[in-house]
Amino acid sequence: MSATASTQAGLQSGEQSAERGRDARQATPRWAHGDWVPAPDRPDPIAVLSAQAATRVQELVPIRYGRMLVSPFTFYRGAAAVMAADLAATPDSGIVVQACGDAHISNFGGFAAPDRRLVFGPNDFDETLPGAWEWDVKRMAASVEIAGRDVGLPADRRRRLVTACVREYREGMRGFARESHLDVWYERINASELVERFGGKLGNKGRIEFAKPFAQARRKTSVRAVSRLTETVHGELRFRSVPPLLVPLRELFDPAHPHGEAEYVRELLHEYASGLDDDRRYLFETYRFVDMARKVVGVGSVGTRAWIFLLVGRGGKDPLVLQAKEAQASVLEPYTGASEYENHGERVVRGQRMAHAANDIFLNWQQSMGLDGNEHDFYVRQLWDWKASIDLSNMSESGLHAYTRACGWSLARAHARSGDRLAIAAYLGGGSAFDKAIARFSAAYADQNELDYERLADAIRSGEVPALTGV
User: Fold this and answer.
1) pLDDT, tens digit, 9 for 90 and up, residues 202-237
2) What region does 215 belong to: left with phi over 0, alpha with psi -120 to 50, or beta?
3) Contact (CB, 8 A) for 454 and 460
4) What is this structure's pTM?
């Protein structure tokens, strides 16, 4: 059942929805979420990661392993498929939302809304699919525990961080249950409001440091991307060649390709433009294509095909840099069933529009022929449009407290849009039983994550998997 269908089925009346949530407690007590041990037949995490790597650009896969090797937290970021298999065996209430699928706290941050305000929320929907809301909460909460270990916090203070994050989710959902459908849909939090709303434990210096990445985000535009990623060649901008992280198409394109490079790019852009609404297509067509390059992005995404396109406006100025990122099957799909959308780019875009507070005006999907001669699904958006992220490894405890509470609230807002928020709120209740259970789960899963991280380290040392570090 899709998240939309589940929502419609669950909104016959407020009391029916609330009763549904209370009934779910009988089948799945809230304390039961705290119990987790690895299944006897748990898949080897390296086997899971290797299966994912099979469909990726093979020369880039060692970069993925190298980035995952940096710390248990970076391993966790890249191991969404590993955790999806573990979460599928955990109890849930049976209430479906449009799940993010990879809701760790580094996948939250600031992004530009079309009205040019900086909005905070989940900003990575590569794995989105209708699924249990608890899976997102558990992935988020475990990432808080792991981040706390990463900065050296003791167990009791990590537990307080996790419970505060989950409490924000629970109380946020209960608040959304009292709002109208339209109010929930319009609800969002601007980055300028974060400190005031969640930064109660921050001192003056902490408030400044917490707000800094969001202030700096307004400078992350296509203009900055051009200054960082391009050079001038014969009077024309061109993407730099910084292999393997940034490689221009001209260095990858096979001269024996049945179509020339210019024709190949022209077809890609035509496919993209044809899927835009008329007003966005008009805007896009005011730009002129200049160059294209393959770019390595993220941790878990490394090895999937990601391209950036440089376009310019009138007089060769007013740059626009778009990113086309490959979308493969969601890590949730083996446990929830296949997406209703054949194109995984469409799956990502539709899921993002369902859950997101605001969307890039150039967001769209397409299927295109890759340089390998095979068709691949992509979604397209601006590369840098006020994207704000926080370096969690340098964050203070009070900063983590503020940031992770904001993550909890914004995840609740995303779920409230796509799921039966009255049923979820009734299931969660007004007490702390669920919060404490998820804190227990998070500690247990963080222990397992450390074992999985060591398994990767051993596999790299033995040569079982290749790794390229420092890139």
Assistant:
1) 888 778 788 888 888 888 888 899 999 999 999 899
2) alpha
3) no
4) 0.94
